[in-house]
Fold each of these.
Amino acid sequence: MKRHHIIINGKELYLDFKSIINSMFDIVHVTDQEGTTLYCSDNYEDFFGISPLEMIGKNIEEFYDLGYFKPSITKQVISSKKKVSTLQNTFNDRKLFVEGFPYYDASGKFSGVVNVSTDITNEEKLIDELKAVKELGSMYFEEINKKYTENNNEAHLSLVFRSEIMTQTVDLAKRLSKVDSSVTLLGESGVGKGVLARYIHENSFRNKKDFVHINCGAIPENLIESELFGYNKGAFTGADQKGKLGLIEKANGGTLFLDEIGDLPINLQVKLLNVLQEKQITRIGGSKPIDIDIRLITATNKDLKKMVAENSFREDLYYRIFVVPIEVPSLRERVEDISILVSYFMDIFSQKYLLNKKLSEKCYKIFEQYDWPGNVRELENLVERLVVTSNGDVITSDHIPLSISESIDSDTPNIKVNHIINLPKAVEETERQLVQMALKKYSTTVKIAEVLGISQASASRKIKKYSIQ
């Protein structure tokens, strides 16, 4: 190749294009308009197994026929007179990204082809490795999810907890899963009563049969009877001509979970009581009783005892279903569980939406201070919203709704009592939470004592008493 010179700012510079090309990592191959090689970069042999001396003066067709270049970019460019790009695998298992460019003389006449090849072997390997890691991660996630969501003798993934109060609740549920007593789950909306009901079923001897979940408040009153008890063909106008299997019958051998039992119409309370007493149902429009064997679990966020007194819930049904009550704690009663629940939901929704989001430490602190009136359901919904609406990979406190941030910043006391417990224990638990909250917000016992209105010595003793780190 010739040396060329240019003048920049009055200085003459000489350019040796061969040296420039040979200093590149890319492989360069130049032919004339017939495909005869005019030039190859020094690294050509490393990738194609042919030295530049062997190539120069020879037509590309000779080597194409021997299988060196397939596909042949040069042939395609000569034919089309346009830029062409493709991937090539070399004899030594390297992968190249090849681009062929037509070049023209001063008169605009097509003069030949310049091929520039870039070694992308490592990039391809990296992509393959990333794909493998992603597939492996998906497999692990599916296995973890499967472990908890399938029927098994262990746990359900949604039962994510480490607090003492939730540990006691789940332990009781597991003990009750081994017997067939009727269980009523009590607690606010969104605490996870349905999850606990399924946990009881999955750990029972009935776990090979159906778990049928019915929300008594979600089915219109004029339809709930046919949904629960089923009907024979022609039972009423508009009925399916084949008849219909009722949900109670569907649960035969398994577990029937009646959520929001307090919303069950009074006339159906009588029919449900008969089912529990006689262990039989009769479909609408039918006359033949059908034997059933079910385990009943109910749930409510209402005061059934009060409803009995008000004659809106049958007393005989109340005593039939209220054999063993389980109080499911609210999320504000199990603050220790918030961070692991958040991490769990972050993983769930990042996987679902193919995102890789992280939550800042400040967000975790805000979540632990918030009251969560909607409990775990509210937490789950908020995490999903933050994952799909936040910009960037890190979710910060700026993304959290003002309604939550402002409720935390308020100086107004927000202590709530949800059920009757031993007063000294309640006072002690309230004190523990206040000390824990103050310690999270302030780093010195002087400041903690100031905000709690106690002496510094008392603050130190209480921190030690509750083993708060």
Note: The two ends are 74 Å apart (CA to CA).
Amino acid sequence: MTTQRILLAGATGAVGFELLRLLRARGCFVRTLSRVEGNATRLLGLASEVVVADAAEPGAVSGALAGVDTIVSCLGANVSTTLRERRSYHDVDVVANTHLLEAAKRSGTRRFVYLSAQPGPGYAHTRYLAAHLQMEERIRASGISFSFVRPTGIYSALSDMIRMARAGLGTVPGDGLARTNPVHPVDVAEALAEVVAGGPDVLPVGGPDVMTRDEVMRLAFDAVGKKGLIVHVPAGVFRATSVLLAGIHPRLSDLLEFVAAVTTSDSVAPARGTRPLRAWFEALARA
């Protein structure tokens, strides 16, 4: 049987790293693409090959696709409040992934699996979601076989809530009643692995538990053993700050716009994940 040859972009992220482990356990050849050399060192010994290049730079990834059947992109700017750069979501998610797509077409890569995001009517207009949906459309138009995996939200994006819980004060935009079912990084990685060789065009992925935003915050308090206090901040405060920061810090502006919308709207997808958020929070609290 021919070994599947895969380029995995974003392998140092929470989902990408778990996917790398899954694919290598299956015997796949996996070449990883990472922007920062220091981050890429943790992949040595696990990945078949490690390439260090910034996909956001034109021409930087041209050689990375040589001999590859499938590209899986987990590449994208995260939604953590720990911001290391100012580039907007468009400048990372769309620009970098478009360079990968163009290189894939030139090299004859047959399939593109993209880690996208589940859109909802209350937040699909945000620049964060717009970047993902724009990239989906570019992949659709390319003629390459594709699958889009769309998680509602990934547990790793909620890690800041443990920091708030330890301080005894949780900030929740809006009234805290919007529902969501975020999903474990391993569950998302398993969904991606499921469609590497073929599968549905779009695969929504939700976690096992549907909770309100307040319930998520209380779960974080439980994990650290504190009762804590939840403070509801009007979403308009986040939106106004987003507008003020647009020309100063594009990433933070995009993030605040997204947070204001997604935390005050339902974000629920079919439950494919099985790993509970409570266990994730408890593990973080013990770390």
Note: Residues 5-282 form a domain with the Rossmann fold fold (CATH 3.40.50.720).
